[in-house]
Design brief:
The protein has 211 residues and is of the alpha/beta class. It has helices spanning 15-29, 52-56, 68-77, 94-109, 130-143, 169-192; strands at residues 2-7, 33-38, 80-88, 91-92, 118-125, 147-148, 156-158. It starts with a strand and ends in a 19-residue tail after the last helix.
Length: 211
């Protein structure tokens, strides 16, 4: 089993990465492979709303000037996904939001490519805005029919300067428990394979409220 984590902070080894690595270390203890990918400085272009991904049905975005299609392949191959971001102006970083917009569009219109994969948010917060950021990431998981993993408090740690989040004892505890919960869910899903039939939840009706 493998968990892939995306770091949406411009700081490669900042507080967001520290929190992500805390979760990943707990998963490693359970024998689960992990990988952290830093996207905080990648130049992802925003979704064009062209709907070519829905027309082509090839699981790819038509924008090929960045590596987003490679990341989509990685998410499909992974057993679970973690999305981490610092909080800027009461929400996730712009880079993470752009990433989510395109990844979610391609996934949803191509048969829900990430359906029933566990997903968890990780937020590095100075003081406030963390819940809004968590809701943004969780909305991506929810519309993608993914399984949202919770922990013993909101999925966030507090700190501003690099490394300050290590002083947030409850925040670190929260990340450790997040890793434990995700590992347990992954192992439970593995045991259920071939024994519990997955429900049919195809997207067959789309209503835009336009008459």
């Amino acid at each position: 089993m493998k968990v892939i984590a995306y770091n949406g902070s411009p700081r490669k080894k900042g507080n967001t990465s520290i929190l992500i690595q805390t979760v990943l270390k707990e998963l490693n203890k359970q024998g689960i492979e992990t990988e952290e990918i830093h996207i905080g400085l990648k130049n992802y272009r925003g979704c064009l709303g062209c709907m070519k991904c829905a027309e082509n049905k090839n699981g790819k975005c038509v924008i090929t000037t960045d590596d987003l299609n490679l990341q989509i392949e990685k998410i499909i191959a992974a057993d679970a996904v973690i999305l981490g971001s610092p909080i800027y102006c009461a929400n996730i970083s712009g880079q993470m939001k752009t990433f989510i917009d395109r990844v979610s569009m391609v996934g949803c219109v191509n048969g829900d490519l990430y359906k029933r994969k566990p997903g968890a948010s990780v937020l590095a917060v100075r003081r406030a805005g963390g819940v809004e950021g968590m809701n943004t990431i969780n909305s991506f998981f929810a519309i993608s029919q993914m399984l949202i993993v919770g922990t013993t408090y909101w999925n966030m740690g507090y700190g501003m300067l690099e490394g300050e989040v290590l002083s947030d004892a409850e925040g670190i505890q929260t990340m450790v428990n997040l890793g434990k919960n995700m590992g347990w869910l992954l192992k439970s899903l593995e045991l259920a394979k071939g024994k519990v039939e997955e429900p049919d939840s195809a997207r067959q009706i789309l209503t835009n409220f336009i008459r």
